[in-house]
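Whiteboard transcription, Tuesday session. T.W. wrote the structure tokens on the left side:
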């Protein structure tokens, strides 16, 4: 594939020559043919004399017209689309008139999306909770905005936008923006804070809302709205805590939309409207930390953005770091440290399984010259990145020293896109004039950024809460089932987080003694696992079923894999099933049957995991 552009290896667009300032969208939502039909008018800033052409990213988009809008006339633009690269898309070239001068340029493109647009998911009424109305939603990160509109699909470019969306009048349309006007069958939106293309978001369905606080609502289908409002009742407190840490919240509204189960991520930080998976509905708020993570993105990622996805840790590592601070302020430092230790369990598992054959992707800064961002996606930038920041914070003297710098860094680069060197420079500029200057020399940047594997240094965490799950995993890993029956430790009460961590650590145990049906049944009885609503617990239990080769539980495992298409859950389940010869044929048969109900990013990665692509 090679690098597609100078600034961003995954985008053809040339932000060094031209940049998008504002986009005006007009969409008709066609549920019958599962496509968007309409236009986008881009306001560009041309940075170079005699620019011959505008290059935009597209994927499966049909262009019907392109024109330059001048004061008194519209000039048709000659345009053509290159051959498409699998999972990346194609290059749209718009030829400009000779002698185009630097400055602003308005270009209107009429187009329609494909019914198979990778960034859109269309659900039939039967696939929704209410069973009576269709539903559509988008997921543009990392490089799927190009399947929804011709654009500079790179986080190096940020633009404001407005949108007019025509949709069935009995459905509600929402976007990652503020609602401007709502009429029957037509809604207009405005996003006045510049965003990268991957933060463009739309959802349309039979939706209702309940307030969560002065600037927050939760949206969902009617059948789960009360449950959602209860589960996410701490949203306003999290938002205030995040503002205390990071500075003023600039996006005005912070709403949540609880998605259908086919949504592929835990959450997506679309501005003004975070999308979250329904697998967070545990009944005890134990999985609501994902909302803290998405709130943190309002600063780290949405306001200060990685310039390309090779530096994705600047989005996700910083966001996990702030998320753990929110957890710490709300629930205490022991919980903050336990959160980070649990993450390290997950990272270890990811490196051992998902990235076993691609160790180069365990680096903090990766090379995407010949790899799409979806293929590189893992927990590494999240967990290795946040561990690096915690190491730096501890080295420089703790939160009271580091947090003022964090606020200044976020202020300095607000509304901009950055690479790792920008962060490094800001850190040195801030601390060079202080008594911490000597400490900076201890940071081995090359080791942290370019070495493969687990974080090179694990900070000193409070392990009080983690020790409980560690000891339980050791017990269940080394004792026989009959020995375990009489142990008092097995009957001790533990939190949901400790249970999740214990099961995760048990999965990581090498050679669990007596891993059979009897042991699994004892585990289920001891911790009431059969009745749990907690998807994180159920996910780990399914993986233990697979490790124990319980063929008679295969239907239950596949039912879990079909109950949601969150990649965090279904990718490891399919990977595990693919490595179990007796289960592999049934897993592949099931995947082929349901893959059209998955978003492209999910089905594409599972196909690769199973060796089908």
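and on the right, the sequence the group agreed on:
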């Amino acid at each position: 594939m090679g690098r597609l552009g100078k600034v961003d290896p995954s985008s053809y667009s040339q932000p060094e020559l031209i940049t998008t300032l504002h986009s005006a969208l007009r969409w008709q939502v066609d549920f019958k043919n599962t496509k968007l039909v309409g236009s986008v008018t881009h306001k560009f800033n041309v940075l170079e004399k005699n620019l011959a052409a505008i290059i935009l990213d597209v994927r499966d988009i049909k262009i019907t017209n392109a024109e330059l809008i001048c004061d008194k006339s519209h000039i048709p633009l000659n345009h053509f689309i290159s051959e498409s690269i699998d999972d990346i898309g194609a290059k749209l070239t718009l030829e400009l008139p000779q002698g185009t001068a630097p400055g602003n340029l308005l270009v209107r493109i009429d187009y329609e999306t494909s019914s198979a647009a990778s960034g859109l998911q269309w659900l039939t009424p039967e696939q929704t909770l209410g069973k009576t109305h269709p539903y559509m939603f988008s997921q543009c990160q990392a490089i799927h905005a190009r399947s929804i509109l011709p654009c500079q699909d790179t986080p190096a470019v940020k633009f404001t936008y407005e949108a007019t969306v025509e949709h069935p009048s009995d459905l509600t349309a929402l976007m990652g923006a503020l609602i401007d006007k709502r009429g029957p069958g037509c809604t207009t939106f405005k996003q006045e804070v510049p965003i990268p293309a991957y933060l463009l978001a739309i959802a349309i369905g039979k939706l209702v809302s309940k307030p969560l606080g002065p600037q927050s609502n939760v949206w969902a289908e009617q059948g789960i709205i009360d449950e959602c409002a209860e589960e996410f009742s701490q949203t306003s407190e999290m938002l205030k805590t995040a503002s205390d840490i990071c500075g003023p919240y600039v996006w005005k509204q912070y709403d949540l939309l609880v998605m259908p189960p086919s949504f592929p991520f835990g959450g997506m930080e679309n501005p003004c409207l975070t999308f979250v998976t329904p697998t967070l509905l545990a009944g005890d708020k134990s999985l609501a930390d994902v909302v803290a993570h998405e709130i943190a993105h309002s600063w780290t990622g949405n306001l200060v953005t990685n310039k390309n996805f090779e530096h994705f840790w600047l989005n996700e590592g910083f966001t996990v770091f702030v998320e753990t601070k929110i957890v710490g302020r709300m629930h205490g430092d022991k919980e903050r440290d336990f959160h980070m230790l649990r993450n390290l369990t997950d990272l270890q598992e990811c490196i051992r399984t998902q990235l076993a054959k691609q160790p180069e992707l365990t680096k903090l800064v990766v090379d995407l010259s010949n790899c799409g961002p979806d293929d590189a996606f893992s927990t590494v930038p999240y967990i290795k990145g946040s561990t690096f920041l915690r190491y730096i914070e501890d080295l420089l003297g703790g939160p009271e020293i580091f947090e003022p710098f964090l606020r200044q860094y976020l202020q300095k680069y607000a509304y901009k896109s950055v690479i790792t060197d920008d962060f490094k420079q800001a850190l040195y500029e801030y601390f060079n004039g202080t008594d911490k200057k000597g400490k900076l020399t201890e940071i081995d940047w090359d080791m942290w950024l370019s070495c493969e594997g687990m974080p090179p240094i694990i900070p000193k965490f409070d392990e009080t809460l983690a020790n409980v799950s560690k000891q339980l995993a050791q017990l269940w890993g080394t004792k026989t089932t009959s020995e375990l029956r009489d142990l008092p430790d097995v009957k001790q009460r533990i939190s949901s987080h400790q249970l999740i961590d214990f099961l995760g650590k048990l999965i990581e145990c090498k050679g669990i003694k007596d891993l059979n049906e009897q042991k699994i049944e004892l585990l289920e009885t001891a911790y009431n696992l059969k009745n749990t609503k907690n998807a994180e617990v159920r996910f780990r239990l399914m993986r233990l079923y697979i490790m124990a080769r319980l063929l008679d539980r295969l239907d239950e495992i596949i039912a879990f894999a079909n109950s949601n298409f969150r990649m965090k859950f279904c990718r490891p389940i399919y990977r595990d099933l693919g490595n179990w010869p007796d289960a592999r044929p049934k897993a592949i048969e099931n995947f082929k049957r349901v893959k059209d109900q998955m978003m492209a990013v999910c089905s594409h990665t599972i196909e690769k995991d199973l060796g089908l692509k």
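Someone added at the bottom: The longest helix spans residues 333-352.
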